[in-house]
Design brief:
CATH architecture: Alpha-Beta Complex
Order of helices and strands: EEEEHEEEEH
Strand content: 25-35%
CATH topology: Nucleoside Triphosphate Pyrophosphohydrolase
Helix content: 10-25%
Number of strands: 8
């Protein structure tokens, strides 16, 4: 049996908005939107990977808040796990540094205005459910 590899995605929340990142690479994913993140490295915890990936991809300092229930299969042996996260006070504004060419803060009513990667859609739906009816975010976990 092949060991699965966890990919962490960040549901980065601010004022009831969710940050989406548009892929610029690889070519087959370019132009589609995703939750930023990446692979958990050997010996790394998923929440540490999330912090590292947000620093590398977006140039921000953030902290995980809570895991979004569920796990979604990606191309084998990868699985996606998502955490809500928030920017730390004093962090730089997010910028597309790696694998992305554009970022967009989406209010709950705008979530489906962008073409999400197919594999991110279930995670985005689950995250949207956590934002609640008033569009409040999950800052308290």
């Amino acid at each position: 049996m092949t060991e699965r590899i966890v990919v962490v995605g960040a549901a980065l929340l601010d004022g009831g908005r969710l940050l989406a990142a548009r892929r610029s690479a690889p070519a087959e994913l370019a132009g589609r939107w995703e939750l930023p993140g990446g692979k958990v490295e050997p010996g790394e915890t998923p929440d540490a990977a999330l912090v590292r990936e947000l620093r590398e991809e977006l140039g921000v300092e953030a902290e995980p808040v809570g895991r979004v229930p569920g796990e979604w299969p990606l191309r084998g042996p990868y699985v996606l796990q998502v955490w809500t996260a928030r920017l730390l006070p004093g962090s730089a504004a997010p910028a597309p540094l790696q694998d992305h060419d554009r970022l967009r803060w989406l209010r709950p009513e705008e979530i489906w205005d962008v073409p999400w990667l197919d594999q991110d859609v279930p995670a985005v739906r689950q995250t949207l459910a956590r934002l609640g009816p008033a569009g409040r975010d999950a800052r308290t976990g």
